[in-house]
Amino acid sequence: MANHEHFMKRCLELAALGTGTVSPNPLVGCVIVHNDKIIGEGYHHKAGEPHAEVNAIQSVKDPSLLQESTLYVSLEPCAHHGKTPPCADLIVSSKIPRVVICNRDPFDQVDGKGIERLKENGIDVTVGLLENEGRWLNRRFFTFHERKRPYIILKFAQTSDGFLDAYRAQSDSKPPLNISGPEMDRIVHKWRSEEDAILVGQNTVQLDDPSLTTRHWPGSHPIRLIIDPQLMVGESKRLLSDGHHTWIFNALRHDYCDNNLCYIRIDDPSAFEQEILNYLYKSNVQSVIIEGGATTLNRFIEAGLWDEARVITGPMRIGSGVQSPALAGNIHESMHVGSDTLQVYLPA
Hints:
17 strands
């Protein structure tokens, strides 16, 4: 069993290499073992490209060994024709006798069908090895298919005395507080590259004029989402003028897109959270990171609509200002990044 876990951990390590490029597909890694030695490995690189099992099988230098090998994979092999052929059929045709799977795939078109296909063809199948680790790695994918909504990450930086910012008005033209250091800022841009979308309220756009891009990290920009019921954000703001994809949830304009700007009508601005999440689910957006401001963060917290919170605490103190949100959660992870402290919370 110890060797089994060793090989599955390698699958999970490989799978993680696809972070930021495989969505809406899951992260999947695969290794092929012959006489306790890895003879092939692969992972899913990008949506639309070959799956992990295909890459692993093709990496084996002596295909005749496949008939005496065990295939380890972090997620159930697919059994349907999508953009690529079924991986379960490839495993069968390769005459691999044993398959060890970390997680069953919750996607309706798979969900046990791949496991069934393998067993029907006489393959010895084991399911559930390092199941919790696999679910954490693919938490976005599992949340999307099981809860029918995106995985929601809250992110905010606070001063050591618990404030998000000083009190500011748009007429002040004061810049936002620079609470976190450069090391943490770079990590935040990495986080953005790993999610499908990033969401803020209109007040944050008005006061801060953010870009919400991944300019300090290589990777794709997330879709920027603005909650702006009365369309208060001016066209000169960067989110509306820089040419990157931006969706504006509002109560005035019916759905339409103008180049990279899309306006999406919300029926009830007083209870927009679930309505927005329903729209994102239908649009195949699997994850969203919410970066502010305080009102928007608190709305999702009060509605119980969050899966993870990343709270950055910098060393400065300001005495008064916009209070940080209160989280009813448990600390999952804590670390120091430069002069800042990062704590990751999960709901209680």
